[in-house]
Amino acid sequence: MIRKTLWISLLFVVCLISGCFTNPITGRDELMLVSEQQDFEIGRRYAPEIETQMGGRVPSPALQNYVDSVGQKVAGVSHWPDLGYHFVALDHESMNAFALPGGYIFVTRGMLEKLDSEAQLAAILAHETAHVVARDTAAAMSRDIGISLVLSAVTSEETSGTVLTVADVTNQILGLSYSREDEKTADLAGLDYMVAAGYNPNAMVETMKMLNDENDFRPIEFFSTHPNPENRIAYLEEKILLNYFQPERLKSGKEDYKNYVLDELD
Ligand SMILES: [Zn+2]
C-alpha cells in the first residue's frame, strides 16, 4: 500500500515536470516524454523516409484513395477521430503494416495481396489506428531510441561525426516493437473501431488466422511481439461473441476489395 502511494506520488511529480498522457483507450495515466506537437513533427519528418525505404507508394491513385477511405472510416470512429490521418499503401513485397506518431499509417503491397476483403483491410488499419490513438509508437521511440535522437536526426548532407541521420533513425523505427499488453489493447480497440465503422469483426479473426498460417511471415509490426496467435484469436472470438450481435450482418466488402486493390495490383 505504501509502495503504491509512493509510486502514485512519484508519477504525479514526474507528470508535473515532464507531462503525462491519459490513454483514451484504457483510461490510464501514462508517463509520456513526447508532446502531441512532437508526435506530428516526428510523423512529418519520418513518413517521407519510410516511403523511400519501403519502395515508395503503390502507383495507383484508385488503390491509394480506396485504402485511405477505408482507413478514414475506422479512424473517424476511434478515440481520436480528428487527428488528421494519412493511410498509404507502400510498394514493398514484405507483409506488413505499421504506424508513425501523428497518424501516418502504412500497409505494404505484400500485405494487401494476402487479404481478400475490405473488412480485413479495415481490421489491419484499425489495429494500427489504435496504436496511434494510444501513442504507442511515440512511447516505444522514447524507450528504445531516445526521443532526443529522434528529434535531432539530420539529413545525410548535414551529417557529421556521430549524429544519426533520418535514414538511420528510420531503420530503428522500422524495428520497434510494442509490449504484448499494448498489442492486445490495439487488437480489442481495433475490433471496436471496425464494428463502429460497419465492418464484420470476424474479418480480424480471419486475418489473424491467415497471417498465422504464413510460414515465412516475420513482420516488423502486427505479429512481432504479439501474444501467441492462439491466445490472440481466442480473446478476439470471445469479445465478438460477448459484445456484438449478429456480426455477420456487417460489411465484408470482397467485391470492392477485388476491384480496387487486387485488380489494381495485378
Ligand atoms: Zn500492433
How would you describe this protein?
The protein has 266 residues and is mainly alpha-helical. Helix content is 57%, strand content 8%. It has twelve helices and five strands. The chain has helices spanning 2-18, 36-53, 61-75, 109-114, 118-133, 136-144, 147-152, 166-174, 180-196, 202-213, 229-243, 254-265; strands at 20-22, 29-31, 86-90, 97-100, 104-108. The strands form two sheets. It has a three-stranded mixed beta sheet. Strands 1-2 form a two-stranded antiparallel ribbon. The longest helix has 18 residues, at 36-53. The protein starts with a helix and ends with a helix. The relative contact order is 0.14. The structure holds zinc ion. The site of zinc ion has 7 residues, from helix 5 and helix 9.
Concise structural overview:
Helices cover 57% and strands 8% of the residues. With 266 residues, the chain is mainly alpha-helical. The protein is globular, with a radius of gyration of 19 Å.
Oligomeric nature of the chains: single chain
Proportion of residues in helical segments: 55-70%
Biggest sheet strand order reads: 3-5-4
Question: What radius of gyration results from the CA coordinates?
Answer: 19 Å
Shape: globular
- Low-confidence parts: none
Tally of alpha and pi helices: 12
User: Beta-strand percentage?
Assistant: 5-15%
Distance between the termini: 61 Å
Which ions and ligands are bound to the chains? zinc ion
Instruction: Look at the helices and sheets and give the structural class.
Output: mainly alpha
User: What's the main sheet like?
Assistant: 3 strands, mixed
Helices and strands, in order, run as HEEHHEEEHHHHHHHHH
- The average pLDDT value, as a whole number, equals 87
Q: Quick one: how many beta strands? A: 5
